[in-house]
Amino acid sequence: MRFRIKTSSSSHTLNDIPETLSFREFLLLIEKETGIPSATITIKAGYPPKIISVPQNSVPLSQIETLSNGDTLIVSSPVQLSTSETPNSIKKQSNNGYDYKPQSKINTLNNNNDHSSISEPDNEKHYVKCRDGYMIKRDIPDDNSCLFRAVSYLVHGTQENFYGLRTVISDSITNSNKLNSTSYSEAILGRPVPQYCNWIMQPNSWGGAIELQILADWFSIEIVTVDIKTGTHYVFGLAENKYTTRIYLLYSGIHYDAIVFNPSLSVNAYSNDTLMFPASDSHALDCAIQLSKLVRSKSGFTDTTSFKLLCLDCNTTLVGEKNATIHASKTGHTNFTESK
What we know:
Layout: E1 3-6, E2 11-14, H1 23-34, E3 42-45, E4 50-51, E5 72-76, H2 103-111, E6 127-130, E7 133-138, H3 146-156, H4 162-178, H5 186-189, H6 193-200, H7 209-219, E8 222-227, E9 233-236, E10 245-251, E11 256-262, E12 277-278, H8 282-297, E13 308-311, E14 316-319, H9 321-331, E15 336-339
Parallel strand pairs: 1-5, 8-10
Antiparallel strand pairs: 1-2, 3-4, 3-5, 6-7, 7-11, 8-9, 10-11, 10-12, 13-14, 13-15
């Protein structure tokens, strides 16, 4: 197969690409040509150009209906490399012992004002000492899109792309169903596939384990959630140890926040946030768990079996996540908020 690759600043030609090449391998090949990190690449094809999405990055190119031999592919990334950077500088060794602090993310954080919705570190709550710096909880807005915002920040260095991640979920489930995969069947989703895809696109719909697994495969990373109440961690994308990079989320029972490493506690030091970590780094995991325990000591978790939710669609008060789920399935209501 042959493709022409166009970015905002360059053009490339890829020749003799095997049809059996997986989409993940294809992204890595594009990364090698363009210098754009594969985990942040968006590909558009056709006219008008539409984003190419696949249920799993392991799908071979021959099975992607929206991709054809000879296509011109528009490749972009929310994270843009500066002219002084090279592909090798994307993953640079830092003196704090962590390898995964993409320079492109640092530039993104310097060049936008997306910090207005991220909390400043609080010396009483938000960090623990870790190596030569601190593991810090970056608070994410409580707007029913916290999972998507947190992942967007940790992968792209900005929350601006969070709604696009809902599209990734919907498209991935739809495409998986078209391939007769049982990964996201009605039995697993708890509702018919079209209904679930419409539901997850609503801004008031919460993401959970299904969304985390899809996003892990989409970005070819491990997503680790640390439960504040129990200190237990869950790894999405762990199968066969296929991903070498991971991000960390802090989970309160109803809300996700981002976990980052930073050598400084200065409120002006977001540009030095380490957003990704080697999956093999057990010390980073230990620090994330220590952070969860600290937050727990400040009552930073919600007991989902006894907390109260108010359905804003009908003003019904519900006790516990189970009752809220039942109510949503019966009524189709999805607009909930925690009730004190």
